[in-house]
Amino acid sequence: MSKQLNIEAQQKFGEAVNTGNFELFKEVVAPNALDNDPAPGQLLGPEGYMHFFTMMRTAFPDFKVEVEHLVADENNVAFAYTATGTHQGNFNGIPATGKSIKIRGMQISRFENGKMVERWGSSDELGILKQLGVQVG
């Protein structure tokens, strides 16, 4: 598969996240795709991402991810991003605060035949909690 095809698949993944059109995950995520940094209880494959981002967009209806830097080879796409949103619904038991969040993160996705088969990632989860006013530590 070509590097460009993998980049396009990753961009479609981002489109799903940013628009809430989660059916797109079925086009770009393999059924048994492994997430090496899953959310608690996250399922494999497109359904896992559909469930996770439904939760995120319920808590942050204007949730957006903006890619800041992207590199790719024949099998992998890696990128740094900024995620933003306004807390307007329940997030991990935290009722809506109306506060805005802005966090950074990184992701590496491995592709086969134009579909994500494995993912590694890290987001500033502690930063979300602090920006929502949750006492941590």
From TrEMBL:
Any Gene Ontology biological process: polyketide metabolic process
One Pfam family per UniProt: SnoaL
InterPro entries linked: Cyclase_SnoaL-like, NTF2-like_dom_sf
Protein name: Ester cyclase
Species for this entry: Mucilaginibacter robiniae
